[in-house]
Amino acid sequence: MAANKKFVYLFKEGNGNMRMLLGGKGANLSEMTNIGLPVPQGFIITCEACNEFIRQGNKFPEGLEAEVSERLKDLEAINGKKLGDNENPLLLSVRSGAPVSMPGMMDTILNLGLNDETVKGLATQTNDERFAFDCYRRFIQMFGNVVLGIDHDNFEAVLEKHKQRLGVKFDSELTPQVLQEIIAEYKDVVSSQSGSEFPQEPKEQLFMAIRAVFNSWNNQRAIVYRKINKIPDEYGTAVNVQTMAFGNMGSDSGTGVAFTRNPSTGEKGVYGEYLINAQGEDVVAGIRTPKPMSTLKDEMPEIYRQFEDICELLEKHYRDMQDIEFTIEKGKLFILQTRTGKRTAAAAIKIAVDMVNEGLISKEEAVMRVEADQLVQLMHRRIDPEAKLNVIGKGLPASPGAASGQVVFNADQAEKMGLDGQKVILVRNETTPDDIHGIVKAQGVLTARGGMTSHAAVVARGIGKPAVTGCDEIKINLENKHFSIGDKVIKEGDILSIDGSTGNVIEGEVPLIDPKLSGEFEEILKWADDIRHLKIRANADTPEDARRAREFGAEGIGLTRTEHMFMEVDRLPIVQDMILAKTKEEREAALEKLLPMQREDFYGILKVMEGSPVTIRLLDPPLHEFLPNIEELLVEVIRLQATKDNSQELEEKQTLLREVRARHEFNPMLGHRGCRLGITYPEIYAMQVRAIFEAVAELVNEGKNVLPEVEIPLVIHVNELKRLHQMVDEVANDVKQKTGVDFNYKVGTMIEMPRACATADEIAKEAEFFSFGTNDLTQTTFGFSRDDAEGKFLHQYIDEKILQEDPFVVLDQNGVGKFMKMAIELGRKTNPNLEIGICGEHGGESSSVKFCHEIGLNFVSCSPFRVPVARLAAAQAVLNKNKN
Asked: Exposed (0-12), middle (13-18) or buried (19+): which is 195, by Cβ within 10 Å?
């Protein structure tokens, strides 16, 4: 079957639409050939040939070698030269080129076809011995490294030895005689390291090089790059065999790489670097310092003018910013490659908006040009990409952004130093509600334990602080106020940096870049808003969060977590009194103290979000989360027993320890939490509902239009919701009667358990809205405890491709998604007007937002800083669907 396939295409036989077959580089070389640009000619071996090669155990598919030989004859005819001819040799470059650009990830060989005889022909042909032997020297080094797997340093050591002996700095200063000595030593390196002589037969060199490029598809750096950028393994790479153009033939030759716009800022204009009398690898090797393209204007004005014209032509042809490789050979310009240029998020936005204004693309195309998830880069301070980092550890990237500060181990100290204007990083084994005041004042948080939904992660995301959690390499010694990581010890007061976008822990201070939201940023989001169907809400627990969310374009609050309000330092003792109460009366007395505090919380959020819906989730976590840590309590009791200092304090701590132990659960995630608390302690939910409605009544009296939605968490049975819905209505009627104020509200539920999805038709009888809690729905669908899974085995599942993605980051459409579809279908069967949304962090991840659009949700809700991501992703979902 493979023998009937066409595996090799001349450039003139392909075109820009054949990217999946010819790879991006090959398709673009074909396209540039077709539009008449000065491209050194060649042929492309297809991505299909690579996949066949891999499938057949790294063997060339039948017919490939014969087809390559035929196309080689065509190329020899085009150039008037022959591969291996001693007098007029054809020399080739062999490069990889996948369907998706993977810069620097795979391998390249230049000057192929040189050997001990053809190098003499090249010297005679060019009348330049130094040039010819320099090309041969380079070829042996590249071939030895890429094809034969010999470490690059072996060759560099030989080269450096001769340069030092002669006291020269640049390769171009080496004489032909010295280059011949180096070539002889290079061949010795090849024979000693590979066990065979350097191949002299050019056709053998060619097929060995093709094999090496195919193999480079599965080199380590290519595999890692594909994983990071979500490029499918089955794409394969094409091989581009191209006539060499030489930039190292003297002062009228050169090579470079340039962009048609600045890839960092998006500014229009030629941006890049070049070297005179050099080959391509010299630009990236760093041995010589390249010159900026602006100086080419003075050195070779006619070449620069031609290059500017080509840049404009390519931008108009491809309708996007281009990354162009070029060579100048004896005053003649050749274009070796063009591809869509990689760019920062800021540049992507500016380029997209400018190209609309220039009439090159439509607003819809502009919206599709920006990667939605990239926008997060612009919302937080980030580490300067040019900075050199001393990374000493890695945890989970729990909350984006970067920060530097002095290490502190205590939340009180973090707060005190923060108030004094000092920058601190709070380092804890794990954070608890007691630490909230320290988190607020710290620049960022680092924890040894905990996952992406741990207390530190959730709080940090909500307030826009960077956080790295679950960095289990760090061993904290609180007594001596230091932590160790490997053999390194970081003391309290030492400067530490964290990157919450990558999970990196970095020693010392790092340079940070402040976020700047440009006019183009606002412009492209407005265009997105005109296109999208999904409403975008935010998760917000404080008026400040809500205000920020509104500034970023949120159209409501999809989740207010009332438990975070209980974590304030002044409230925690009251909450603990409520939990530890022996009688209902004692509990109600504590709740009475909490009522005005909760009312004030809800008043602030509802007021900020006037005119927009605010979904307030009643208490969800198990009550023991508000109590002291059982291990720390036990340590304190043992300490008091040993010192015998304070018998009254010891008795109090022992009593507290008994109470905490009595409330301990073996699996709290599936235990006494959510609506189960509301059923067993109805007075807790009643207090929260009263606080909501009293705040609503006060705002209505002030003439405000507020839209409260009361959300009951963790419902698994319609009878739970029925009972609690009735309680909500009773409290609402009581508040209306006592205040004389009428108001509207909705009651709904979180859908976060498989049984709730399966019985959504029944539950919908008692609900005016559903909101998918996809974190818990993912945990219960997979049978994972998120913190345990992320800390112990989930990374291995992803590395070994048991799972393609972390299901807590990217929504599991095949599993969790099916439960969601079931719930939507059943729920709307009962209640066609049922409003349905999602309020997990998936609501701010672009592919998950697309899925939410496809299955017919009304809204997504995410952290305030991901609202712009969701706005753009929701628009892209519409455009993708229209395109299909």
From this structure: exposed
Separation CA 190–CA 213 (nearest Å)? 19
Phi then psi for residue 465, to 5 deg, are -100, 140
- List C-alpha distances in Å: 473 to 465, 505, 855: 22, 10, 41
The catalytic position among 839, 852, 853, 862 is: 839
Q: How far apart are CA 715 and CA 758, in angstroms?
A: 12
- Which range of 459-463, 498-502, 630-634 scores highest in mean pLDDT? It is 498-502
First to last CA, the chain: 31
Q: What are phi and psi for residue 449, nearest 5 degrees?
A: -125, 170
Tell me the C-alpha distance between 77 and 71, whole Å.
Answer: 10
Strand partners, 273: 257, 292
Residue 535 in this model has a pLDDT that exceeds 80: yes
Whether 47 is a known active-site residue: answer no
- Rounded Cα distance between 280 and 226, Å, is 24
pLDDT tens by residue, 606-632: 999 999 999 999 999 888 778 778 888
Rg of the chain over Cα atoms, rounded to whole angstroms, equals 33
Higher pLDDT, 630 or 418: 418
Element (H, E) at 467: strand 467-469
SS3 state at 506: strand
Catalytic residue among 50, 135, 311, 455: 455
> DSSP for 450-462?
--TTSHHHHHHHH
Confidence of residue 445 (pLDDT cuts 50, 70, 90): very high
H-type alpha helices, 476-571: 519-531, 543-551, 562-566
CA 639 to chain CA centroid, Å, is: 46
Task: Decide if 406 contacts 425 (C-beta within 8 A).
Answer: yes
| Cα(879)–Cα(884) distance, integer angstroms | 9
- DSSP code at position 2: G
Average pLDDT over residues 321-341: 92
Question: In the beta sheet, which residues pair with residue 617?
Answer: 561, 711
Give kind and range of the element (H or E) at residue 615.
strand 613-617
Q: Return the bridge partners of 391, or none.
A: 506
What local confidence, expressed as pLDDT, does residue 382 receive? 86
Residues 85-94: what's their mean pLDDT? 94
* pLDDT value of position 2: 46
Q: Which DSSP category does 4 fall into?
A: G
Residue 883's CB is within 10 A of a number of other CB atoms, namely: 8
Please report the beta strands in 293-390, taking only residues with DSSP state E, as ranges in sequence order.
322-329, 332-340, 382-383
Residue burial 142-154, b: 16+ Cβ < 10 Å; e: rest: bbbbbbbebeeeb
In Å, the largest CA–CA distance within the chain is 104
Which sign does the torsion angle of CA 355, 359, 363, 369 carry?
negative
- Amino acid 314 reads L
- Mean of the pLDDT values across residues 289-313? 92
pTM score of the predicted model: 0.76
242 beta partners: 42, 93
Determine whether 564 is an active site residue: no
Q: How far apart are CA 461 and CA 841, in angstroms?
A: 10
Least confident stretch, 105-114, 481-490, 525-534, 856-865: 105-114
> Band of the pLDDT at 650, cuts 50, 70, 90?
confident
> Counting every residue, how long is the chain?
884
Contact (Cβ atoms closer than 8 angstroms) between residue 211 and residue 149:
no
Q: Which residue has the tokens 């060019």?
A: 126
Q: Phi/psi at 257 (nearest 5 deg)?
A: -130, 130
**What average pLDDT does the segment 81-95 reach?**
94
Total H helices, total E strands in the chain: 36, 31
Residue 374 tokens read as: 């990239």
Question: What per-residue confidence (pLDDT) applies to 1?
Answer: 41
Q: Within 10 A of 768 (CB to CB), how many other CB atoms are there?
A: 17
